[in-house]
Amino acid sequence: MNREQELRDNLQLAQERIEKACVAAGRAPQEVTLVAITKTFPVSDVAALAALGVVDVGENREQELKVKAPEHPELTWHFVGQLQSKKARSVVRHASVVHSVDRLSLVGALSKAAVAEEKTLRCLLQVSLASYGPDGAATGADRGGVAPADVPELAAEVAAADGLELAGVMAVAPLGSEPDKAFAGLQEVAARLRSEHAAATWISAGMSGDLEAAIRHGATHVRLGRALLGTRPSLG
Ligand SMILES: *Cc1c(COP(=O)(O)O)cnc(C)c1O
């Protein structure tokens, strides 16, 4: 089977999973946006997904983003990885959404970059769900992000920054936990955020292994890598 056919079949299966999960949750499938996470895969796969109608594509490393995004300026590029302040300018140049705003010190760098690039950057606050995991952060279940208690301060900073638009929250479920419990926690964090910032409506949650649980708990964006592209080559 050629790669185009494989991607077509995978995309169809993923869309069916999303639809089924939405129906089961009493939600409309149009409420959920699929973001294809193409990290480690060649730009030819991005082209193939784009030809199949995918418009939202994400990367987790600046080095890959800056190579792939210029080849497909027609797509909406999302940055979902750990972000160093010194890479902010490059990420802002190539992406229109950053899912991983996780600390106050990053906000100034992103704002400065957005102003310099003359664009408005959509920002999601990456929330740590470690406290909903097996033993909290102590087990190494923490997969990054700001603690729920620190969300209001970070949100206020983003909302007040030039060039940034506070769009919502993002999270990765802790390893070895029930994703439902973690995503229910995220949904509460998101609701509290919306009560202060009405436009912050996005919930980026759910990956290939747990998209159903995320959709049950209000995800508006699911980030799918393996389900679309297959097993990633090891980065060593
Ligand atoms: C790699 C990655 C994904 C996609 O994970 P899969 O399990 O391959 O679907 C989603 N979110 C982030 C932040 C990632 O780094």
UniProtKB/TrEMBL annotation:
Pfam families this protein is in? Ala_racemase_N
Q: Does the keyword Transcription regulation apply?
A: no
Question: What domain of life?
Answer: Bacteria
Keywords noted in UniProt: Pyridoxal phosphate
Kindly indicate where the leader peptide sits in this chain.
none
Q: Care to name a GO molecular-function term for this sequence?
A: pyridoxal phosphate binding
Q: According to the UniProt entry, which residues carry N6-(pyridoxal phosphate)lysine?
A: K39
InterPro entries annotated for this entry?
Ala_racemase_N, PLP-binding_barrel, PyrdxlP_homeostasis
* Cofactor names: pyridoxal 5'-phosphate
Q: Where is the Alanine racemase N-terminal domain?
A: 27-233
Q: What does this protein do?
A: Pyridoxal 5'-phosphate (PLP)-binding protein, which is involved in PLP homeostasis.
The cross-references to NCBIfam families, in alphabetical order and at most eight, read: YggS family pyridoxal phosphate-dependent enzyme
State the name under which the record lists this protein: Pyridoxal phosphate homeostasis protein
